[in-house]
Specification:
CATH superfamily: Vaccinia Virus protein VP39
Strand order of the largest sheet: 5-4-3-6-7-9-8
Radius of gyration: 15 Å
Helix content: 25-40%
Number of strands: 9
CATH architecture: 3-Layer(aba) Sandwich
Number of helices: 5
Order of helices and strands: HEEHEHEHEEHEEE
CATH class: Alpha Beta
Shape: globular
Structural class: alpha/beta
Largest sheet: 7 strands, mixed
Strand content: 15-25%
Number of domains: 1
Distance between the termini: 33 Å
Length: 177
């Protein structure tokens, strides 16, 4: 039986479209809060480190990284409405010193300052992101992928979560540069 997230993403992939010249690399499918925290823990995020969430959706990873882990958190999101939603949440929580959202194409950003990257993208789109990260990431940078692995990288650790509190299972992959 397919995981619910995989099924939603596969169905979305069939109906995928271009947005303003930039390709959407995943549907908006929010990561449960329990998994957000596990992703940041698996990535060993520390206070003051720089974390990027690629395809940040409603900003929940960025917000938790700034609020709970005291990291410098940046989300990259193509959808303008989701950017506004995220930015509004960040301002309401007074996290604007440590958290912000870039409204743009995640394939056109510079991640060389990243200590940690989080991703929840479809496998075909991970293939597009991987060469860019190979070039840009500094030695020691970590990447945590949710449910879909980087096929040309070997994970340092794989964590299976049988139940996220909502009855769904997840797999998290940790990679180190």
């Amino acid at each position: 039986m397919l995981k619910l997230s995989l099924l939603v993403m596969l169905l979305w992939g069939v109906a995928s479209a271009q947005t303003g010249g930039a390709e959407k690399l995943a549907p908006y499918y929010p990561t449960p809060e329990t998994i957000v925290e596990k992703m940041l823990q698996l990535g060993s995020l520390k206070a003051g480190e720089k974390v990027y969430d690629l395809g940040s959706g409603d900003g929940r990873i960025v917000i938790m990284a700034a609020q709970k882990f005291h990291a410098d958190a940046v989300g990259v999101e193509l959808d303008k409405d989701l950017c506004k939603l995220s930015t509004d949440k960040i301002l309401k929580l007074h996290l604007e010193k440590n958290a912000h959202i870039v409204n743009g194409d995640l394939l056109k950003q510079n991640y060389s300052s990243a200590d940690l990257i989080t991703v929840y993208l479809l496998p075909g789109f991970i293939d597009k992101v991987q060469p860019m990260l190979d070039q840009q990431l500094k030695k020691g940078a970590r990447v945590v992928a949710h449910d879909f692995e980087f096929k040309n990288w070997t994970p340092d650790k794989v964590e299976n979560v049988a139940d996220d509190g909502e009855g769904r299972s997840h797999t998290l992959y940790l990679y180190r540069k």
